[in-house]
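Handout for the seminar on molecular recognition.
Each group receives one record of this type.
Step one: identify the two inputs.
Step two: read the structure output and locate the region that could contact pyridoxal-5'-phosphate.
Step three: write two sentences on what you found, then compare them with the reference statements printed after the record.
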Amino acid sequence: MTEAAIDFFAIHTQTQRLRTRLDSAMARVLDHAQFIMGPEVAELEARLAAYCGARHCVTCSDGTTALTMALMAWSIGPGDAVFVPSFTFVATAEAPALLGATPVFVDVRADTFTLDSDSLEAAVATAQAAGLRPAAVIPVDLYGHPVDRPAIDAVARRHGLRVLNDAAQAFGASLAGVRVGAWSDATAVSFFPSKPLGCLGDGGAVFTDDDATAAALRSIRMHGKRSDKYDNVRLGLNARLDTVQAAVLLEKLAVFDDELARRRAVAARYTTALEGVVTTPSVAPDAAPAWALYTVQAANRAAVEAACAAAGVPTRVYYPTPLHRQPGYEKAPRPAAGCPVAEDLARHALSLPMHPYLEDAQVDRIAAAVRAASGA
Ligand SMILES: *Cc1c(COP(=O)(O)O)cnc(C)c1O
């Protein structure tokens, strides 16, 4: 018997597990036909806010728009510096750039891959020297590991920065027992299918405890409405979450804790098998990651990639180019010392298959392929 193929994300497997429930959830929407802002949207927002321990959840069309809407709610625009890590998905820098603000790159920590507060302090000085007004910082819970919140908050307070947590990869993660979504001035998440909580297409949400921010977000996602969309009090967007996606997410949320526990078990098994073979991901003492990705660092990354491919194990590089090296962002300011950790990670980071449906034997098979390439 040949061994079963290993999926990187297993979206098909999860969809089939939930197939009957998803079919009925979608059928209910077809029956009531309230495709825009139907009852499932409000129900999902209440459930998500309760899950995270946030006062408000405002769903929207996708994670990139969630980031953009939060910055819009704070009137961030030209002349404003918005600090973003260089080692992240481009959306983190795209949101401020779309609003005419200046993304200013910041290096990341070598241990948890998340924003480095010392580099943030240096980047603030760079922005000030360039005549920009330090306005906000968007730390990213990369791969699902929560950011170093106390250190970042201290710098943010010192310079009056709003903190917008990009938790697109980290729904379900917590720090010191507090879930992502319940800290920061606002938190953006994505429901892209491969994220820890994914829908059947694009989706996103913003969490906040601030009533004024939440009210602005609800207005922005519907054309800057006041009472309705024909009464426009600010510049807005068409950025609602479809009712059918909300219905799907309610079903996915019902199994989310079960899936998260399995992701954590897979991560622990990987770490036991790979410690000393490659650099396994560090977890801060009070952090419980969501494990959107399990990312190792390998000095001989190309050899590990090749050995895994030969063994039928898919791997991916998140991210091959740090944003400060991307042609679209080459002119963006960065600290005088540059972003050397981001450059190093871009050369050595390698993500292994990660999803709740990986079996222990598959994890062992993946680890064996990595070990073989490392000569261990
Ligand atoms: C996926 C992702 C986003 C964007 O989410 P979309 O829903 O795809 O727009 C933003 N930031 C990070 C770090 C992401 O991984």
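Reference statements: Residues 62-64, 88-89, 91-92, 140, 166, 168-169, 190, 192, 202, 204 surround pyridoxal-5'-phosphate (CB under 6 Å). The first strand starts at residue 56 and ends at 60.
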